[in-house]
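Hi W.,

Here's what went into the run:
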Amino acid sequence: MLQVSRKVDYALRAAIYLAAQGQGRLVPANEIAESRRIPKKFLEKIIKDMQRAGLVTSYRGAQGGYTLARSSDRISFRDVIEAVEGPIALNVCVNEGHDCSVMASCNMQRVWREGQRRMLEFFAGTTLADMNPRIFLNTSVEAAV
Amino acid sequence: MLQVSRKVDYALRAAIYLAAQGQGRLVPANEIAESRRIPKKFLEKIIKDMQRAGLVTSYRGAQGGYTLARSSDRISFRDVIEAVEGPIALNVCVNEGHDCSVMASCNMQRVWREGQRRMLEFFAGTTLADMNPRIFLNTSVEAAV
DNA sequence: TAATACTAGACTAAATAGGTCGGAATTAAT
DNA sequence: ATTAATTCCGACCTATTTAGTCTAGTATTA
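Here's what came out:
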């Protein structure tokens, strides 16, 4: 339906929450889940995805928890989206190596590519730091308000 | 998965095919289905959606078929997408009247809105006529090539 | 009246979304 | 050493959506 999944939404909520806590502070899943209204067990899996993508670091055991692996202004929406959903492709025919049966006569590929390029450009330019209440760094988002 | 459905893809293939045949010529479902590799019965339902949205006109009986309801340069990708999928909302919280539980502290809504605005702007600016082989009218698509 | 087309609605198989469950492994504090 | 806090892991589950198919029409024309 051309809509982001709950997974992406939850991942970003969590990432933004971690960003607000400051890199370094270890935040347990419970706290994130409760404060951002995310099912805890589901959240754990989602954060694991972000960890695998190198966005989050985790520590087990008592006093353990999660923290951002790098500063919030170097983690973009695109990073988070792709961490949990894999690479974005607006249509199957935009994938590398995909061979569309009607490609020669269809001409749509270029449209999907360009639409996707614009979307990615925007999501890559918006970072977790931009979500910090009050201070918005991304001028393109700023300009839209 | 943030990807357009087969339905949207088929709808656009069909619409582009109709555009290429010229408004006025009645094209039967069979011809569209075969030439664009779309399951016929599925196609009929999809075209019905486009008809309900006022994009296509149909005529029953022998020599019947489908044709565009207006000229191809006045039917955009956005028109077709919304005809078969309903209004686009990049995230649930962008919908009118939706009340997000963590909205006050989340700040993401503005990002989805702006991302969506950019996407729609592009899809609304790209028409079926732009898909005519060789002649591309939409300069923004043109520029991307 | 036969052939060609679209129409309507029920049905279905497979995939995806959105989780849940139960416990094992790890660590810090007591 | 024990316990409590915490992540990690894999299997499981269920509802919804996707991508169609099937059957039985109705309308139109030659």
